[in-house]
TrEMBL record:
Family classification: Belongs to the CD36 family.
Any GO molecular function: scavenger receptor activity
Pfam families: CD36 (PF01130)
Coiled coil: none
Name recorded for this polypeptide: Scavenger receptor class B member 2
């Protein structure tokens, strides 16, 4: 009977080891978990995924940092601009998707994505309706840029002198962000109704949507989850000079497909940036105890067209290429001479940084990054950062430009930040624990096999040891 039991234990040990190793090598349970994730991460009514996508629970904050110019008269004489950063002025961003319709047999979803901003005093340095900033006079700059070297430069100059407009102005943070009625624009509006009499960098962007989106639901392929296929009725942009640069590629930056790998590239379309971007894996991080992959824009994405030929399409007009880090977005900003860059010209051409005194670019404060759960594709933490700059130059037709050098003046930079809330983090931890338990089953089976094997070895070897000891006693000499 004892031999039968020992034989059974030995056999079971071998079975458990073979089964455990087979499951581990074939990744059977891991594939089962991945298959379940693929099946669940689809935009369809009545699911937790759909509700979380429609109304994301993590709080989003917009932080605005302004650059205050301390030597405007000297700048007009060709001296180096001195700036002092003022901020943050923080706003809570309330963002949900509305007018959602599932179409094309559940394969596509249409929606609008309005955003509302509410000021958060405890996360800000001051009162935006009181604090004054000396900044670039963008309406005057727009008028001068459009009228120079044309017959309209004389009436434009008369209006500038009449309204005592200069290249720099003093306005409150609230006015610069959300808009103010400008005397020059009001006068121009009488002759050109398409010119808005009000100006602000986020004018008409509070409580409004940037247009209709059409995205893929992920029903056909999990890789297409929430990928944008149309924006405002168009499948591509028309601001740039190449088809690559005009592509609408990726998601809106708030959701991503599951089962990410470190060799994956994340694509994002941003109407604020007027282009699509991509990010690559940087390092492993942890957010609220949850493992995540950090993705950042590679330096290549900011390089000039000589280093990265794919960026040649961003040279507008064609052939008019800028240095690394700078993007001319005037075509999609109503003709305003606005140029985007990373904050403080981080990872940009050094000449832009050297032209300004008071900038201090660094990775921690100025890099854009996304921390994503690789299994689910859920965004755990992010900082999306960009800087708005104005190009100024000496224009012979306008005395307001003095002897200023051709430079790019930083106006403000924006940090859109999000971090998963504790309630959502708790739910995700539970989900990840369940999947971890399932994928750990092969190791448990192997451990049981090893224990049974150890028991079998002990019980087989002990009688042999006893017999050996008995034999030694019998042959011991008297």
């Amino acid at each position: 009977m004892r031999k039968v039991c020992l034989g059974a234990v030995g056999a079971l040990s071998m079975v458990f080891l073979v089964v455990g190793i087979s499951l581990l090598v074939a990744r059977v349970l891991e594939k089962a978990v991945d298959g379940q994730v693929r099946q669940n991460i689809v935009l369809k009514n009545g699911t937790d995924v759909f509700e979380a996508w429609k109304d994301p629970p993590p709080p989003i904050h917009m932080q605005f940092y302004f650059f205050n110019y301390t030597n405007p008269l000297e700048i007009l004489q060709g001296e180096t601009p001195l700036v002092k950063q003022v901020g943050p002025y923080t706003y809570r961003e309330y963002s949900s998707r509305i007018d959602v319709h599932i179409i094309d047999n559940g394969t596509k979803v249409t929606f609008f994505h309005p955003k509302t901003y509410v000021f958060v005093p405890e996360m800000s340095v001051g009162d935006p309706e009181v604090d004054l900033i000396r900044s670039v006079n963008m309406p005057a700059l727009m008028a001068m840029d459009m009228a120079t070297a044309t017959p309209f430069h004389i009436p434009a100059e008369i209006l500038l002198i009449l309204y005592e407009e200069n290249l720099f102005l003093m306005r409150t943070v609230h006015e610069l962000l959300w808009g103010y009625r400008d005397k020059l624009l009001t006068a121009l509006h009488k002759f050109h109704s398409e010119i808005d009499p009000e100006f602000g960098y986020y004018y008409k962007m509070n409580g409004t949507s940037d247009g209709e989106y059409v995205v893929l639901s992920g029903k056909k392929s999990y890789l297409d989850f929430s990928r944008i296929v149309e924006w405002n009725g168009k499948s591509s942009l028309n601001w740039w000079t190449s088809s690559i640069c005009n592509m609408i590629n990726g998601t809106d930056g708030e959701s991503f497909h599951p089962l990410l790998g470190t060799d994956d590239t994340i694509y994002i379309f941003s109407s604020d940036f007027c282009r699509s971007l991509y990010l690559t894996f940087d390092r492993y991080v942890t957010v609220e105890g949850i493992p995540a992959y950090r993705f950042v824009p590679p330096k290549k994405i900011f390089e000039n067209a000589t280093v990265n030929p794919d960026n040649a399409g961003f040279c507008v007009p064609a052939g008019n290429c800028l240095g690394a880090g700078l993007l001319n977005v005037s075509a999609c900003k109503r003709g305003a001479p606005i140029f985007l860059s990373p904050p403080h010209f981080y990872e940009s051409d050094e000449k832009y940084l050297n032209d300004i005194e008071g900038l201090h670019p660094n990775k921690e404060d100025h890099e854009t990054f996304l921390d994503i759960s690789p299994l689910t594709g859920i965004l755990l933490r992010a900082n999306k950062r960009m800087q708005v700059n104005a190009r100024v130059q000496k224009l012979p037709d306008f005395v307001q430009t003095g002897n200023i050098r051709t430079i790019y003046l930083p106006v403000l930079y924006i940090n859109e930040s999000v971090a998963i809330d504790k309630a959502s983090a708790g739910k995700l931890k539970t989900l990840l624990l369940e999947s971890s338990v399932i994928t750990s089953i092969p190791f448990v089976i192997m451990a049981v096999g090893l224990i049974l094997g150890l028991v079998f070895t002990v019980f087989v070897c002990r009688p042999l040891q006893a017999r050996e000891e008995g034999r030694e006693v019998l042959i011991e000499p008297e």
